[in-house]
Structure formats: structure tokens, C-alpha cells
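Chapter review. Work through the record for M48 family metalloprotease before attempting the end-of-chapter questions.
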Amino acid sequence: MAFSRMLMGCTAPLALAGCAAGGLTNTAPVTPGQAAPISVTERQQGSEARTGILNEYNGAYTRGPTGYVTNVARRIAVQSGLSSDPGAFTVTVLDSSVDNAFATPGGYVYVTRGLLALMNDEAELAAVLGHEVGHVAARHSQKRQAAAQRNSIFGALGQVLAGAVLGDSGFGQLLGRAAGTGSQLATLGYSRSQESQADQLGVDYLNGAEYDTDALASMLTSLNSQQQLDQQISGDTRSVPAWASTHPQSGERIQAALAEARRIGGTEQPRNRDAYLSAIDGLLYGDNPDNGIIDGRDFLHPKLGIAFTIPQGAQMQNNAQAVTISGQNMQAQFGTGSYSGSLPNYIQQVLKSLGGSGATLSGGQVQRTTINGFPTAYAQTRASTQSGSVDVTIFAYEASKSRAYHFVVLTPAGQWLGTAQGMVQSFRKLSNADASKVKPRYVRIVTVKSGDTASSLAARMAFDDDQLQRFYVLNGIPQGATLHTGDKVKIVTY
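C-alpha cells for M48 family metalloprotease:
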């Protein structure tokens, strides 16, 4: 959360939705290399969306592999036919730890440094970005934007935030409005047939750019492994990470991508692993401490000197406008806003930010207390959404005469705070000693030496738990695989 912080899609994360049975596509075909050229209107759309996207993802990451990523993205993008000029594509590495990539109309292509850390070769990078460009080439975003405008009062981000925990209850729609994000174009979901078509186009683009066409399937496999690890670490098998929040994974989809690669050939073409690993050596991994970090169930912000703890089994994501928390029958956001010295007025301001033409909110009576030394005020009201009623609880904390923080907690009507009770009570000052322990982590490329094993290398990882599993997933290798002297692998260190 940057007070000074989803997987692929033209306007959606690398959609890991299941593909249609019997093949990769059941939509109108788009021949690789023959997509309609980028229009003036599309360039304007992409340009207008850019500011919101950069705000949502902490801006551009300008160090390390940015030039390398740009070259790969342009090499794959020109395979679409949107433009034969590589310079027509604006490529940005986003300074976010979330696993995400997407593209918008107008030739704008984005990938987070979090997703770069999970990739293991240049062909996988090309596969991810080819899938995204495929959505643009097929003009999928225009269809999804129309659907979102018809079906959602608050737009697409709410659908993403609702995730798989609360379905379409309207909880996420309210939270999406509270976040105030301007990047809705980058969070629209796609249909199965659109995802299938983007997969097919992505594989075809790989072949045209002379990359191993199996790369999309291997990238999907790594994403699937990361999802399983995230669920294992959080203890919540229902939880869905950012990249899959609108695009659930499917083994069938991986098999379809493999089948498409076999159909068109190109499975013996280069993957350029060494070049890729060299490019990402030293990449910032995970949260930037300047923007706060997620450490297990704790959110720690050393710069602001605050912390809180989420419920067991819940998950959180640290974005530019807010920290979003998803748990059992509960969703919440933690953030800040302008503060004039009155907590009741601050709460009303937050409630107002949640309102809209599709939701009716009536402010409840504001009550006061003190939590861990912070003057605190709270209020609850009930919101009527398209899918029924939900309880909305606001907890606001005065940190100084000019700074306040708050939780917005959404639960099923009648459940009060539910599992969030302990979370709102956990807001606290971060001690200087604890703040000093928060350090940035980086991806490091090491060469396997004689006697090295997965276990010995994993022991060097800057994590207190699940080191071996993290090592396997990070490197895209199966558990128990034998390492060979001279192999290059990724580890994460301080």
C-alpha cells in the first residue's frame, strides 16, 4: 500500500479459465499476422487507461530487465498484425509483486515484476505477452466492456475483488469503488471461448517469432503450482490469487495448449533460458518495504510505522490504493484518506466513497473506543446491492492530527464483523525494532555446484517457511527433481 502500492489479459489477467472442450477456439477466427490495425480510437483508449494502471501497480519498474522485456514483447506483438512497427507497442514492467500481465487497446502491454520472477525463460515471457496481445487482436475487450456496463453497477474491478470467496454478492463491487482505481480496463474478465482463442493466438505467435511453442503450457503449469502453494501457505484451499480471480485454472487448458503446439510444430525452437535468467538477476522480489510488506498474516509498513494481522486462512493483496483482504464470508480493505481531525467526518467520507447509483447506504451511529493507543471510531450500516443486503462496517483510527487509517469490512447481513473482529483489534504501531527487520528481497541466479541439492539451495531462501516448496515452484521444476552441476536456478535472498 503506497501512501506516498491479476494472470494475463488484453483487459484481463492471463486468463486461466478453462478452455472449451474439443479445441482451443470457438469464436470468430483471427488469423495471426492479419488482425485489424490499431485505430486512433484504440490508441486513445489505451492512453487514457494508462494513468490508472500505473497508479494501481505502483508505477513503472525502471531497473533491471525493462529493456529486455520491451524487446521480447515487441518481437511477439508484431506477429499479431496490429502493427508491423515494433515501436507501435508501449511496453511497461509494473512495480508490483502481484502475478499479472495484460494489454490494452492501442498497443499498450504490461507485465508485473512479480510475474517475471515466476517465469523461467524468454519463451515463457513471450507466451504470456502473446496471449495478452491475442486478446487485443481479437478485440475481446470491447465485448467485455459492453457486458460489464450492462451487468455491473460499479464496473469490472468489483468482479475481480469479489473473487471466489463471496461470488457475485456485491461485496467486491463496493470494495472496488472504495479503492477508487482507474484501471478497470485492465481487470475485465473474459469468456472461456475468448481465453481459448487468446491461447491459440499466443501459441501461433510463439511459432512466428521462433520460440518453443510449448512455452504457454509450461507457464500455465507454473501458475497452477503457484496457486496451489499460495493456498497451502494461507491454509485456505478456496482462496484464489490475483491472476486467477477472474480466470480459474484448468488442467484441460494446459492440455489444449500442448495440443495446439503439437499441431503447428515449433516445439524444438529456442527458449533462451540463460538470457532470461541473466536479465532478471537482481530483480526486486515481493513487496517493496517502502510501500509496506505482507509477512504471512501480518501487514507491516515500516515507513508509516503501522501493522495489522489478518484472520487465519484469509489472504491479502497490497495495491496502490489499499490492502485488500479476502476471508471466509468476509472481505475488507485497509486504506487512508484525507483527514481533518474528526473521525466521525472521516467515516462519513469513507461511506460516501462506497455509495453509488446501485447501492443505498445510510450512515449508522458512530461509536468511539481506543485500540492499542489509537483513538478509534466505528460505525455499521447496511448496503443494498444487486445481489442482496450486506453489512458494511467502518473502523477508523487516528494516527495523528493529520493522518487517519481505516478498514472497510463487508460481511453477510447480520454477521457484524464476523472473522474480521480480531483484525480490526490488531491495528497497532510497528516498533522500531520490528521495522528494522523489514528488508527488500531479490531474485538471485546461482549455478549449481557439486554437492548442491534442492534442499541445500532452498535453505538459502529468505523465507521462514516452505523454503523447499517455494524453490521448486519458483524454478518450475517438479518436487524431487535432480539438479545437475552447472544448472542455473533462482533463489530469493536479502
